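Record Centrosomal protein of 76 kDa, 660 aa.
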Amino acid sequence: MSLPPEKATELKQIIHDHLIKMDIHGKIRDVLAETVRGDGQHGQRSLSEEDFIHALQRRGIVEDVMKDLHFTNDVSHTEADSVNKSATRFVDKNITQLKTTNISPLRRYLYLQVLGGKAFLEHLQEPEPLPGQVCSTFTLHLHFRNQRFRSKPVPCACEPDLQEGFLLEVHRDGPDASKMADATTMLSICDPVHMVLIKTDTSGDTTLISSYFLDWRRVLGAPTGKTSVSAELLGVGSECKVAVGVLNLKLELYPPLTENLSPDVVTTQQSLERQKTAEKERLFLVYAKQWWQEFLEIRPSHQSKLVKIFAQDENGVNRPVCSYVRVLRAGRLLESPRQAARFVSLLAQERAPVVGGGVRQEQWCSMMAFLCRNKGDCEDHATLLCSLLLGFGLDAYVCVGTKAKNVPYTWVMTCGTDGSITFWESFTAHRYLHRPIDPDAPPMVPQPKPTHPYRTLGCVFNNKRFLANCQPSDAVELCVFDFTDGSRWKAMSEEAVRSVCAPGSTSSLPPTPPLCSPSVAPNEASNQLELEMRYLLAEHRKDLGLATVWDDHLSYLLSAALSAYELERCTGVLCGNEEFQDAVRRAVPDGHTFKGFPIHFLHRNARRAFTTCLRSAFCEEIVCCRGDHVRLAVRVRVFAYPEAACAVWIMFACKYRSVL
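=>
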């Protein structure tokens, strides 16, 4: 028997509320701890999902749940009744299935519970959403030692109902990674839990609310192995000193420690790490000031060059720019450097928001915050692309300079083993081969014309090197990229850069997150968006007094063109166009005219996309086509990439009999 979606949602909510009421999380934790201890004493084999379910049944947990859960068999109510009785709660249509995993008794786990939020005063006046009403939502993202999680979206409120539990594995590094981490080992793990809170509005637009680093090691000194934390979240950018809300957290270790550390030991370790980090940062600052003074003495004009050594992150913390770049390997999520460039270009462009007018505020984001928000400025795109290209084994650098009208800008360059220099535009994935101009050549010698949009270059850097351009002219077309030539490039000490920018060098560096698999199901998303576009097109024609007759075969043929367009964006090579043209010629009868209009988007909002399409006179001509035997077609292809990035291609087409 199948239930309508609204009843299924109501049923899930009833079960969810009942489980919370009977403290099912606490009972499951007790059984889990007991089972893990038992298995650890009897051979230390891996605890499977089946073993855990048997343990729950033996304790009578499952029986108690079913016994206390009652449903009334009321089938006579109307649809309006069901709407009135349904829970006032946001419904996430994109809930991903939870993946089961084996819990090893040889591993230590940190169970982090989010028990709701409070004091989100910006949302104090927001009314409680009505059933089925679309509303703004909060989503909490977590990253800890190469593990990433996200919560279900909940409606924005002064006290958001963020009720989630995350099981984080605390593992050793190096050859002892297979052994269970003891208290001393965990005390030496300074990686924080990076928590990023994202707000998604009703149109799907995301906003970074807070980026918080939780030092979880206080649980090591808790007498019961459990501790509660009230995490005060601060804003970002110009509001980085203003509290935006509080999250109630509970931390617990599994299996519990046989012997807890003294709270003083934990506090002392944290204090020593802070002192060590502060000393390293102080020494680097002293070195950077001396290096900068030497650079200014080379030529007075260097004072105005864009040589950026430090940049502020979303929390207002000044960090060396080299720390924003990491060697990032995408596993099997991305297959080539060009596909990586395509992925980065699909992340939307947005400057850091600022209250009031004035000069543009520059804000570099940590990689985790950038990926969770799914958009950022040119600096965020460039550092992510450089990190991915380094992961693919290329000699990549972030370039800081200007483009047209002297607008500050960043892009990426790679150095080939043959000395070739390639510029990568992170917003578009375009590549430009650098052909320098020889200023000493005779006037009659033809000089190459630059194809790139970049004007000046102040410095280049990656995760290990920082070099400032000290050539007489900082014009990009005149630059010689011989980094071994000290008369053209002034390099910072690689040892000094490594002391504050290498992974694990200081406890203040945000950890590097792995990329997540695509969160969009491309086939389902394509079908849904195509249905919505068909509806909007038909309604638009209806308002004009025009009938709409679809040609499904023609719609299907358009897929080949959309696939070829996306392949061209990835590889720079257009292929498959001949087959598409031949298929269209066969589908369009003699005496008929065919028109097609492809367009590309970074979002899946049908109404926004359709409004944008109608701004094109050519598209409007197709949508509003009048004539004899008019047949319309629309095809949508959503190409999924890591994270929430997707390339959306839409093509409108029509064929009609030509009448003179």
